[in-house]
Write a structure and sequence with these properties.
Layout: E1 6-11, H1 15-26, H2 28-35, E2 39-45, E3 64-65, H3 69-72, E4 77-82, H4 90-99, E5 103-106, H5 109-125, E6 130-131, H6 143-149, E7 155-161, H7 164-176, H8 180-189, H9 198-201, H10 204-217, E8 228-229, H11 237-245, E9 248-259, E10 262-273, E11 285-292, E12 296-303, H12 307-326, E13 350-360, H13 365-375, E14 380-389, E15 392-399, E16 402-403, H14 404-415, E17 420-429
Parallel strand pairs: 1-2, 1-4, 2-3, 4-5, 5-6, 8-10, 10-17
Antiparallel strand pairs: 7-9, 7-11, 9-10, 11-12, 13-15, 13-16, 13-17, 14-15
Helix pairs in contact: 1-12, 4-5, 5-10, 7-8
Length: about 425
């Protein structure tokens, strides 16, 4: 191929940088053919070249750099790939790249979720591409399907398992009957959980991803802090067991729903009917379920993180940008956050609830609890006495659809009843009536 190559600079040579570079090298001929011009990495930047990489590759020394400016100020480099994660210094690097006329590919969910507007404005000013397929769902195609293949639909719902660490933990708790801490320790041992797993187990990582998905699906600006969020640290192995007995799986879901031009956005553990397609997504896998006005229901499934899967998504973006460069069409797919839709407070949510209580094993206790529910307008679907040993009993309730506000009021009153020892769990349920 005689044409001048399109040159790429990769900033950050950790897991994702390695997966990106390896994918580009492994499939170079095919990529060149698909783009119609050679696509070559000119420079790789990392502050530490001594630590081991997930996949060892011999890199010529002239390609290695430690200063991002060796990519950002190189007039030959047309595509900058940001693979460092976090917002600092990634934000500065990406802005500098765009202001220098370079298109950018990133898989940095926090950067896109928190600074999307600023970055898309900078890209639009110079008609450049800013692509971020790998920021949600790792190797699963979801950003481009929403922006292109499903763009003719009105999306009413997007619901996904978008965090592999927590899905691995919940799968272990459910299948091995272990508690959260033990399952987390195993996730850490196997390399699924980060050394500091807070963002995953407290649901911040899925909230970043939901902010990105919802902003595309519902064509609106979404602030990540407006997303209601609960993590998985309060779940017990018993919740998994009882949910299973009732015909449900518990998953950490990111859910976005449009209701009358307003949005319900939430990340929390959820009971899902065992026959729902998302209930079968186990281990570190991710899946995203979308409901569109014309397409109906579609689900995207695969590896939501990792060196090669995320590298696959990043390289898909590089190819797309390179095609746009070749045909002089960068900036073709601009930001689609046209609106500022109202985000409904969680108190407005209407759903079903699972509630696990430890109570005194005495006559009249069930009736007292049922009275509170009745007075607060919460309708009960089923009640099970799961375990009565010694002085206390464990009771599990499943409600019909009710307002969060009514449920919270009921919980407060129930917690004050003298025979209620503990509210051990309250989990929202996605369940047909
Ligand atoms: N920590 C994330 C997960 C992967 O466990 O899915 C990166 O987004």
């Amino acid at each position: 191929m005689a044409e001048r190559p399109i040159l790429v600079g990769i900033i950050g040579y950790g897991k994702i940088g390695t997966g990106t570079y390896k994918t580009l090298l492994d499939n170079q001929d095919s990529i060149d053919r698909q783009v119609g011009r050679p696509v070559r990495v000119k420079r790789l930047v990392d502050v530490d070249w001594s630590s081991p990489r997930p996949v060892p590759i011999d890199i010529p020394s002239e390609m290695k750099a430690t200063d991002a400016d060796e990519v950002l100020t190189d007039p030959e480099i047309a595509i900058v790939v940001e693979c460092i994660g976090g917002t600092e210094p990634a934000l500065d690097f990406v802005l500098k790249a765009l202001r220098s006329g370079k298109s950018v590919v990133t898989s940095n969910k926090e950067l896109i979720a928190r600074h999307g507007k600023e970055l898309f404005d900078a890209a639009a000013e110079r008609s450049l591409d800013l692509m971020f397929e790998g920021s949600v769902g790792g190797g699963i195609p979801i950003v481009r399907p929403l922006k292109s293949c499903l763009a003719g639909n009105r999306i009413s719902r997007i619901m996904g398992i978008v965090n592999g660490t927590t899905n691995f933990i919940l799968t272990r708790m459910s299948q091995q009957h272990v508690e959260f801490q033990e399952a987390l320790a195993e996730a850490t041992r196997l390399g699924y959980a980060e050394p500091d797993p807070t963002n995953d187990v407290e649901g911040l990582d899925p909230a970043f991803k939901l902010a990105i998905l919802a902003s595309i699906a519902f064509e609106t600006r979404v602030q990540v802090d407006s997303i209601y969020r609960e993590g998985i640290t309060g779940l017990g192995a018993r919740d998994m067991e009882y949910a299973g007995q009732l015909g449900y799986a518990i998953k950490l879901l990111a859910i976005g729903t449009e209701i009358d031009e307003a949005l319900e956005l939430r990340v929390h553990p959820t009971l899902l009917p065992a026959d729902h397609p998302l209930a079968a997504v186990s281990g570190p896998f991710n899946a995203i379920f979308v409901r569109g006005s014309s397409v109906g229901e579609v689900m995207f499934y695969g590896q939501g993180a990792g060196t090669m899967p995320t590298g696959s998504a990043v390289v898909g973006d590089i190819i797309d940008v390179a095609r746009n460069i070749r045909s002089g069409a960068t900036g073709r797919v601009a930001c689609t956050c046209f609106e500022g839709k109202h985000i409904l407070p969680i108190e407005e949510l209407e759903t079903r609830y699972y509630l696990r209580l430890r109570v005194a094993d005495r006559p009249g206790v069930l009736a007292a609890i049922a009275t509170v529910f009745g007075e607060e307008g919460v309708s009960l679907a089923s009640v099970l006495q799961m375990d009565a040993s010694g002085e206390s009993a464990e009771i599990v309730w499943l409600t019909h659809t009710t307002k969060e506000r009514q449920m919270q009021r009921s919980l407060k009153r129930i917690s004050e009843l003298p025979d209620v020892h503990e509210i051990s769990g309250c989990i929202r349920a996605e369940a047909e009536e």
